[in-house]
Amino acid sequence: MINFVGAGPGAADLITVRGKELLEQADIIIYAGSLVNPDLLKYAKEGCEIYNSASMTLEDVTGTMIRGEKEGKKVVRLHTGDPAIYGAIREQMDILDEHGISYKVCPGVSSLFGTAAALNAEYTLPNVSQSVIVTRMAGRTGVPGKESIESFAAHHATMVIFLSTGMLGELSKRLIDGGYSPETPAAIVYKATWPDEKVVRTTVKDLEQSAKENGITKTALITVGDFLGDRYERSKLYDPAFTHEFRIGTDTK
Ligand code: SAH
Q: Can you give the pLDDT at residue 207?
């Protein structure tokens, strides 16, 4: 049994209790060294074999897993944030399937949410946006044509953009071409929940300039939308007038 574990967005105490227990029990840990906080490795037991996947290929990683499984060892593959977001786990799973090796996923706190926390923000404000679009700019990894930034921008929903910090001029242009006004609020969150976290509030048109001024070139999420503004409606759920399953409101009294 191989365990894919979400390490959380950065701070070592933002791993789940289950994830920490799996690290403590592991005989082999393969961690994504470019983004996983190395402090998490302090949970490893003595004698645990530890590999940084930053310099490994897919075959190196799965080869280590397969060897561990043959030796009867407990293997943890530690991914940054939640493994389901840009985690490249499917290709590992398919190779494990070919070898008849079973696996399980322990979810983690994605930087998507570490970033909202850093901003003290709610992505889904009533009457502002009730949808969150999680996407990226095409880089060396392409993005299907129907998922262009312009097409998503047309919805004016909350957008959270991964893996795009090096392309902010182009990103601004596409967001504006798609229909966001240049003054739409935006934020750049660098290393959310890490000790050196930086939060930069800006606008769609000034993304590139703001990143430059703050020396941010990678490990950041870009968030865009009026959820960063001041206007919203109160929730129905907590409205004194609103009746629902657990509370009678003044509307039915
Ligand atoms: N699975 C991860 C994402 C991996 S892709 C997750 O759920 O968060 C790597 C990209 O995620 C980085 O290029 C950056 O855009 C973003 N990222 C990862 N950790 C981050 C953090 N702590 N703060 C801001 N962005 C982060």
A: 98
For residue 253, the model assigns a pLDDT of 67
Q: Are 89 and 4 in contact (CB under 8 A)?
A: yes
| Per-block mean pLDDT, blocks of 10 residues, the chain (253 long) | 97 98 98 96 98 97 98 98 97 98 98 98 95 95 94 97 97 97 98 98 98 97 96 85 89 78
Ligand 1 pocket: which of 5, 31, 35, 198 to mutate (most atoms within 8 A of CB): 35
Query: Ligand 1 pocket check: which of 37, 78, 80, 82 to mutate, most ligand atoms within 8 Å of Cβ?
Result: 80
State which residues form the domain around 91: 2-106
CATH number of 8's domain? 3.40.1010.10
Q: Which two tokens stand for residue 111?
A: 């930087």
pTM of the entire predicted model: 0.94
| Token pair belonging to 107 | 């979810």
Establish if 142 belongs to a structural domain. Answer: yes
Same domain, 33 and 94: yes
**Do residues 96 and 125 share a domain?**
no
Q: Which DSSP string do the residues of 48-66 spell out, in sequence order? A: -EEEEGGG--HHHHHHHHH
Name which of 128, 175, 124 is nearest 151 in CA terms: 175
Domain shared by 137 and 100, yes or no: no
